[in-house]
């Protein structure tokens, strides 16, 4: 019925040797939906029972402040500019007298606005020091949009939920 | 007092009529709710979902009631440019056309508001008044989606009215009467006997299979349900001719849609599946058992319509018109010719 003119609604195509009865495709479709009527639905009743996400699911981004060098690459590559970073330079005393003074970057602020984030993961990919990780946690909805701005401490807390990377493939 | 002596009339014509109309109205209104619920649940399970679940405590049984109450609370909006009088009258016209269909549908030998001699003629004529309401809604909304939806609906309803009428006409020719009670009684006539047991078959099994298929396809198209829902076409026309409606007026369109689904399913059950007639049960009992029998048969038809809805994709406008004018109408005419020939010869 879906084709125009010859009145043969056979939609199963596929094997050309197969004898096609007129409207066989329609009955095949009806059989398919009829079969599902008696199957258990795939629905997970969310608040009562929770779906366990796959280990590498893109739930939330976690931050390892120790690894971060305030290089700002993530903030610059972010397509919707949802990462806010502030930092300052700190001078470190030389280990031996007469040595060179080392300059170290200190992270003051690292916020991700999940109201803007589109979960592309470019920040995680681009980080040269492996300071950002994907965590499969997904339950952090809020009543107000402003509460979706996760600060440095909150992002560090997510670090506990990060799953270990999968083992390398052999050969 | 036996059931046969039970008189279901009061003896006063107008009192009888008022009581029957009130019962028919209440019947239609309350029957729409389980049908809506069935649609939500059946479609959900066919699509691997559960459908309404929390409303009412168990199985979401109260969902249609909750939806109805929600519609009642909503504001009744009229667009600024709309032709207000026509706009407000349109849902009433659609619903009244559907209500009027229930008058001639027999639920039992006497359980019928009015058994007219021209029952089917009246039924088909009055149900096409609904098209007028649809056109009124589409035209008066002052909205391009509504206008296109209304015109598409008019084109579709006119196209599928013809096969519907021709298929019903084939039944009328075989039964030799236009009265719906007469058609059911004609199906109850014993065709042959096995031993001493008289066997009678519904028209579906005695040569009306083609009419049945044409009637059901045309019925689904008349209802603008999903394989034929070009007038609504949610993804391209928002909601067709009901786009601008809200609140109680939208609920009236909604109710009218489900009521006409019930009405036409009852008509299918009456014309092709033997109506309130059932074997074994003596005729005296049909006034009591009949309503349950005919509604059981109609619910099978309704289930089939829901099944179709959750299975097939929408037809394109030209495919829809081609199917009616190039296939269904010629087929219905040939079918009519064959039925008439058999009727004259046999």
Please characterize this protein's 3D structure.
- The complex is a heterodimer of chains A (171) and B (346).
- Chain A folds into 2 domains: 1-42, no CATH class; 60-161, Alpha-Beta Plaits (2-Layer Sandwich).
- Helices cover 18% and strands 19% of the residues of chain A.
- Chain A has helices at residues 24-37, 73-77, 122-126, 152-157, and strands at 60-63, 83-92, 102-113, 132-135, 149-150.
- A 3-stranded antiparallel beta sheet of chain A has the order 2-3-5. In chain A, strands 1-4 form a two-stranded antiparallel sheet.
- The longest helix of chain A has 14 residues, at 24-37.
- Chain A is elongated and about 95 Å long.
- The relative contact order of chain A is 0.18.
- With 346 residues, chain B is mainly alpha-helical.
- Chain B has 2 domains: 26-73, no CATH class; 75-345, no CATH class.
- Helices cover 65% and strands 2% of the residues of chain B.
- Chain B is built from 12 helices and 2 strands, in the order H-H-H-H-H-H-H-E-E-H-H-H-H-H.
- Chain B starts with 12 loop residues before the first helix and ends with a helix.
- The model of chain B is unreliable at 1-5 (pLDDT under 50).
CATH architecture of the largest domain in chain A: 2-Layer Sandwich
* Major β-sheet annotation of chain B: 2 strands, antiparallel
* Amino-to-carboxy terminus distance of chain A: 52 Å
Spatial strand order of the main sheet of chain B = 1-2
- Rough shape of chain B? globular
- What would the CATH topology of the largest domain in chain A be? Alpha-Beta Plaits
Q: What share of residues of chain B is helical?
A: 55-70%
């Amino acid at each position: 019925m879906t084709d125009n003119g010859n009145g043969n609604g056979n939609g199963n195509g596929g094997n050309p040797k197969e004898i096609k009865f007129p409207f066989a495709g329609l009955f095949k479709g009806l059989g398919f939906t009829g079969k599902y009527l008696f199957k258990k639905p795939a629905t997970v009743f969310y608040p009562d029972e929770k779906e366990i996400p796959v280990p590498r699911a893109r739930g939330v981004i976690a931050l390892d402040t120790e690894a971060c060098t305030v290089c700002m690459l993530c903030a610059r590559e972010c397509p919707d500019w949802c990462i806010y970073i502030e930092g300052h330079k700190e001078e470190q005393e030389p280990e031996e007298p007469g040595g060179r003074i080392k300059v170290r970057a200190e992270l003051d602020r690292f916020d991700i606005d999940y109201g803007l984030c589109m979960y592309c993961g470019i920040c995680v990919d681009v980080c040269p020091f492996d300071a950002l990780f994907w965590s499969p946690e997904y339950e952090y909805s809020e009543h107000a949009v402003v509460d979706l701005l996760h600060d440095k401490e909150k992002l560090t807390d997510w670090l506990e939920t990060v799953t270990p990377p999968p083992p390398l493939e052999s050969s | 007092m036996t059931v046969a002596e039970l008189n279901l009339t009061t003896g006063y014509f107008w009192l009888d009529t008022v009581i029957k109309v009130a019962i028919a109205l209440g019947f239609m209104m309350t029957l729409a709710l389980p049908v809506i619920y069935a649609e939500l649940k059946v479609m959900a399970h066919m699509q691997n979902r559960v459908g309404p679940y929390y409303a009412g405590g168990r199985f979401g049984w109260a969902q249609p009631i909750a939806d109805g109450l929600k519609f009642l609370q909503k504001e009744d909006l009229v667009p600024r440019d709309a032709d207000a009088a026509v706009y407000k009258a349109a849902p009433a016209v659609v619903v009244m056309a559907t209500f009027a269909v229930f008058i001639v549908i027999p639920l039992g030998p006497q359980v019928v508001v009015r058994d007219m001699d021209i029952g089917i003629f009246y039924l088909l004529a009055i149900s096409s008044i609904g098209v007028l309401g649809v056109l009124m809604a589409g035209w008066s909304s002052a909205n391009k989606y509504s206008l296109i939806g209304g015109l598409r609906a008019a084109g579709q309803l006119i196209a599928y009215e013809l096969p519907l009428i021709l298929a019903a006409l084939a039944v009328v020719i075989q039964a030799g009467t236009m009265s719906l009670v007469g058609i059911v009684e004609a199906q109850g006539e014993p065709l042959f006997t096995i031993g001493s047991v008289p066997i009678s078959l519904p028209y579906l099994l005695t040569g009306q299979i083609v009419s049945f298929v044409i009637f059901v396809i045309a019925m689904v198209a008349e209802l603008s349900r999903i394989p034929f829902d070009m007038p609504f076409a949610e993804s391209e026309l928002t909601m067709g001719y009901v786009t601008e409606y809200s609140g109680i007026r939208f609920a009236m369109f909604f109710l009218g849609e489900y009521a006409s689904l019930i009405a036409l399913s009852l008509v299918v059950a009456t014309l092709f599946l033997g109506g309130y007639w059932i074997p074994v049960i003596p005729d005296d009992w049909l006034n009591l058992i009949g309503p349950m029998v005919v509604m059981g048969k109609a619910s099978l038809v309704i289930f089939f319509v829901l099944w179709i809805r959750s299975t097939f994709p929408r037809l394109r406008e030209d495919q829809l018109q081609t199917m009616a004018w190039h296939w269904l109408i010629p087929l219905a005419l040939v079918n009519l010719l064959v039925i008439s020939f058999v009727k004259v010869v046999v």
